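Fold sample X.
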Amino acid sequence: MENYTDEHLGNFTTKQRIINSIIQKNMPHALLISGPKNTGKYNFLHTLATKILNNKNPISPYLVTVDELYKEGVNSLEEISAQNNSSFNQFERKKQKKKSDKIGVEDIEAATKYLYETIDGDAKIVIIRDIERMTIPASNKFLKLLEEPPQKTFFFLTTSTPLKILATIISRCRTENFSLLSQKEMEETLNDSEKNTEFYSENEKKMLMLLSAGKSELFEKMQNNEEFFTEKKEKYKEVLELEKMTNLEKMQKAETFAKINITEILDFLELLLLVKRENLQNVKNRENSKTLEILEKTDEAIILLQQNANKRLVLENLFLSL
């Protein structure tokens, strides 16, 4: 741990403060990292946990993640593990095999049982990604686990929406905040010859910074994966073309989109928000009200879709308002 420095972009001061507290043997019982999605919260905690436990095995009984099948189209937690490069044990719910975006009480009970049955003198770290996904019963169950944890058990937690978390849970955690990359950080990275970014023209650099929206995970992935960057640019063009469609074409688009998985739909709507926020900076004041209205409706659509509303109806209403 003494020589460990996180290799990913962003939030260096916060990361180093956490690392230093661990080196000084002042590791918090429960650490919560809050911040926008795709800012590297989970990846940082993942790597940090393996360093703390000096994990040399692909699977360690002392590293556990609590989750459900929240990625649509994924049939097993082993697949999630492979997609995330995760080396953690994960608990699969026995009662529900289909996709879910919630962490249920069964998950917390399974983790609790495992922690108490693994009786030895070694420390254990439990990681929970996006704890706002917990149901109320799961939150209450987890609160009891936080209040009376097994010996030498530590909790690493992340959230993108802390207002959705029980205040009593937050009060029992040390909270650190991750922020978006600054324009300066992104420009310096793209201008660094060691990053092999000579391929990008000035326009492409601007597009990369725009599409990442300061989210370090997206920025690094687009920077290092040309295919992913191209895919994002195509989606961006698709958003721009949406407003030029006739109402019939928009309804057909909504019908087509309703058939794809929710993650892709939400990614598309995030791009729509990005486009509209960019417009808001460039349009004249008389046009601002329309742009603000679309931003508000897009936010509402995202919330409705996350609540499992009818995808086609939500998308039709949104697209027709453009």
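Fold sample Y, listed below.
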Amino acid sequence: MGNVNAQYPKTIAKFGYLKLSCMNGLVGDKVFALSLFAKSDDEIQGAEEGNGLFVGSIENVIDSWGPGLLLAHPGTPYGVRVYSVLIGGGSIICRESQTTQRNANDIPMYHWSRDQTLSGNEGTFNIRDPLRIGAITVQPLCPLDVDKCFKASESHLHNIGTEPDYWELTERQKVLQGGQYVVLQVGNTYHKMKGRTLKTAILDRWQMSHDFNLLCKPWGLQVSLCTGVARRVPIKKLIEEPMFAYIDRLLPNGWDSIKSDARAAFMGSIDYIQWISQLDESQRDCMIKVITFLLELLKDTGLDREGSQLQLIWPDGSSLSHVISLKCSKSNLWARVLKDSPSCATFAAITGLCLEAPGHLCKNNDSATWTGQGVLLSTAVSQVAPITSGGICMSPWELRDGQRYWMEKSGGDLWVYTTKGDNSETQLRVKINRFPIGLSLMRNWQVLRERQDLSFEAEEVVVFGAIA
């Protein structure tokens, strides 16, 4: 049956059996109901899969499924200022408190249950007033914007499929000794278990879905062979000409037809995502093989397990099997913030690009020897919302001058001290946490992490190690 009018361009009435939401326990089974729809056929299909709400009055409920007992305010007329209705082995109460603000045309929501108790803060009602009885409803006038909420919630977001290292109880011993005195000793044995890092999650996700967008994540690291300046870049920017020359020698099937465009896409001359979307199936298969090969090479770069050496792949046209190390101490202490963790991944490579920074300019040497020294890291950081945070902060956040912040986690291995100039990027000086554990946890500093996605709000910073 259909009806067309000015208010509802498409109104559909449907008769059929419907399961009521919370009131199903009162009526015992589905009821024969008339349902009105003013939108699409998808809404009708969705309504059939869900539960319905009862709309009417308490008088209607008692007439249909009574008898019922009213719990009302003393000294008021019958049916006025009712707190609860006992009916069908349960009770109906108002889900909204006395202080809830509603529009004049809103119908309040009530709930029927077998185990409800009155708290004294429930709203009262008239048994002849219209009401709705149900569990969950959709408010179509809610102004919420999901994209804006996502943006405001960036500090609360974490990477799926990751977890930190943890201690697991593996053995518990109890020893009871008797004699003139009785002594009971209890001992626990814990083993430290490795968590799951973001790098592992990225590599597993690539094997599972071959999501080309993963190469746009900001987890690449370039270290300039000339100046020692390091910077964070998208992973795809690590794939420079020496790597392409090596891939040319491997001759993967179909590579010749796309290699020139692939170079341009990885280096940013053309839009990478748009180019990928235009590849046919055989070309995509070729790119999957190439990227899988490169990720396998890069997965062993970054900080070693002890956090003492930063491993950088040094590609050339004849081999991609060589790495070079940067010792993460003193002036190179900035490299410690690159350790793989649930919120940090590092795929690192030496680059022939001359990356300059104030005080660290080109050495004008065509055959510079690697000294094992980096000078600074250019990256972006953002705040990590505390786990106990009760809500989402909508106000903008920025680093403050002369403040101390934890890196990655509160009481962790590293903390930084900030220096902000008027016309320069914020500087972070990395320090090793030498505080006792108890004192570390008492230091209620904010926690920083590197930018998790290029679209996330973050503050550009320059990270230094210890002052030489």
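Sample Y note: The mean pLDDT is 82.
Also: Residues 156 and 388 are 11 Å apart (CA to CA).
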